[in-house]
Structure formats: structure tokens, C-alpha cells
Amino acid sequence: MSALVPVFDGHNDTLLQLYRSPEQDKEKLFMQGAPASWHIDLPRARKGGFAGGMFAIFSPSPEKAGLSAPTAPSSDEKLPPDLPMEEARVSMLGMASILFRLERAGALKICRSAADIRAAMAQDTIAAVFHIEGVEAIDPGLDMLDVLHAAGLRSLGPVWSRANAFGTGVPFRFPSSPDVGPGLTDAGKALVKACNRLKILVDLSHLNEKGFRDVAAISAAPLVATHSNVHAISASARNLTDWQLGAIRDTRGMVGLNFARGFLRPDGSMVQDADLDTVLRHVDALLDKLGEDGVGLGSDFDGAQIPSAIGDVSGLPRLIEAFERHGFGRELVEKIAWKNWVDVLERTIG
Ligand code: ZN
After folding, report:
1. Which domain holds residue 175?
2. 169 belongs to a structural domain
3. For the chain, which residues score pLDDT lower than 50?
4. Distance 288 CA to ligand 1 centre (A)
């Protein structure tokens, strides 16, 4: 096996795992080893070459226990219920607190710029970008946005697969077009402009097509979907159509490849395994549509069922090896593994 290639990843839900765990010492849990069913902890991150990524804060819907993706593909899957702002704030702050505690314990560094990420990687410290997936915790007047930015927030998805004050997400529907529901609200449009001004990345994953078009029309930043795949291969509403991929390419934006089985498999099954050949099909298609600068990883670790060939973060070298066997040269492998993310973040957050 070649030397460990560092990976900077577009999306994980490990903060939600830590938040939901009954263990009080979250730092110890992350740094000494989480349950085997989890995907990321420090010992396994080291083994896999995980150098960092966007650490998502996701506030679950009221009566749902987990991330509430269905287990079987359904063409009439409905959106989960709305999440009240006060309720979202409680869990958002809980997860933000865990992120800050992890930094204080030395488990990771919260990065506010591409230079911060490079410095953390050089010091062999996990580079974490503070991301919120679905901003129910932010008021439509955006007061909370300034507070969160000051706390280090550098990336957000206006919506999860849910409707909120800013827009509407796609349901976990298969097969389905992402053109489901209305576009951004006026507050959503103001949010995009504020993110441009504050240099916060706007993540298009989970947004429906009309919302995507609104962001494309308003935003001056590269268009980015942190964890989505190719709709032409797996017709999930969560995946990106050729038009969306073209719009992303036109802004020198990028897409992080999602490892979730249901967004990889041509039949949309969330539970049946997906092999590395299927992963490579998506990567080839993304490279074809976006070019070598437009493709990265967006694992969805700790938020989805992952191909058993990868398993968890310690299995990343097996994916890198598959890239090499597939004929990707060292330069392209490094671009996909981390360089493209750092580059697009540099052009977005500075
Ligand atoms: Zn997600």
C-alpha cells in the first residue's frame, strides 16, 4: 500500500453521534474510541488518514430518532415535519459545545480559513470546518448568523431535507427529480447574500431544484454540494442532475461524493451494499461533468449506511487504492482526497 494519502472530507455527522450518546465525557469518547458502529473517532481517523473536513451540526426533526432517511426507496416519501427554532437552537448549541470542547481537548482545530486548514494538516491535527446542515436555529432576521460566524461558522446548508424559514429541501424520494417544492423565501435569499458577505460557504446538498436555481442566481461564490451524487446513475432527489452539475462547473464549484448506499446504488436501496465499482462510476461521471478540480469526497460518515468495502473512516485507504487501481494518477488522487476542497474553500471563506 502506498503512503497514507490525507483526506479532507465534505461532510460527517459525528457531532450528532456524540450529542446523542449517553456518555458525558464526549472528548474521551472521540479521542479514545467510539463504538464500532460509529464511523469516526480519533484512533480510526489516524489509521485512515482522515485530515479533517466539514463537521456538520444537524438538529433532528421532533419525533424522529435518527437522521430519518427511509430504509427502502419510495417515490412518494414525504418531507419530515418542520423543526421549531427554539428546539433547533437547543441541539445546535449542544453540538457546537461538543465541537468547542473537542478543540479545547486537542482533538481537532476549528478552521476559519484555508490557511487554518493547511496549518492544522501540517501539524497533524484534524482540521474541522464548523458547518450547520439546515439552519432552523437561525432567525429570519439573521441575528444568530453573526453570532455563529463569530464563533467560527464557515459553512451552512440553508435546509436539510425539510422546509424552514429559508427554503425547502428535497424529500428522500426515489426515483424522483430534485424539482420538488418552492424555491428560497425572501429570508433565504437574504441569507445567501449575508453568507457571501461573511464568507460562509452555502451548501446546496439537500436543497430542491428551485432553491438551487435561486442560490445560483444570487450567490457570487462557487456553487458547492458537499455530499451529493450523480442523478443520472442513482435517481434520488438528493442527487444532482446534469443541469445542476453544469451550473456547479460554470462557477468552478465542486461536489463531495456521498458514500451513502442509497445515493450510490442505481436501485436506490439504502440497506443493500454498494461496491467500489459503483463508487467509481459516480466519480468518473463527476469528473466528466465537473473536471478534475470539481470533485472531492463528502462521506456522510456517521449519517448514512456506508459501503462495507469502506466500512468507516479507517477504510479510506481502500478507497484511495481503488482510485489508484482505476488509473488515477497521484495528482488527481490528491485533488479528490483533499486539495480541491481546500482550494474551493480558499475561494469561498478565504
Ligand atoms: Zn446530509
Report:
1. 7-346
2. yes
3. 1-2, 65
4. 24
Ligand 1 centre distance from Cα of residue 3 (Å): 30
Residue 133 lies in a domain: yes
C-alpha to C-alpha distance for 43 and 35, rounded to whole angstroms: 12
For residue 217, the tally of other CB atoms under 10 A from its CB is 12
How many domains is the chain partitioned into structurally?
A: 1
Distance from the alpha carbon of residue 334 to the mean position of ligand 1, in angstroms? 24
- pTM of the predicted protein model: 0.97
Q: Answer whether residue 2 is part of any domain.
A: no
In the three-class reduction of DSSP (H, G, I as helix; E, B as strand; rest coil), residue 51 is classed as: strand
As beta bridge partners, residue 207 has 169
Whether the CA torsion 241, 53, 274, 305 is positive or negative: it is negative
Please say whether the dihedral angle defined by the alpha carbons of residues 55, 58, 68 and 210, taken in this order, is positive or negative. Answer: negative
Q: What is the pLDDT of residues 145-195, one digit of tens each?
A: 999 999 999 999 999 999 999 999 999 999 999 999 999 999 999 999 999
Cα–ligand 1 centroid distance for 160 (angstroms): 7
User: How many other CB atoms are found less than 10 A from the CB of residue 339?
Assistant: 17
CATH of the domain at 48: 3.20.20.140
Centre of ligand 1 from the C-alpha of residue 300, in Å: 7
Residue 256, pLDDT score: 99
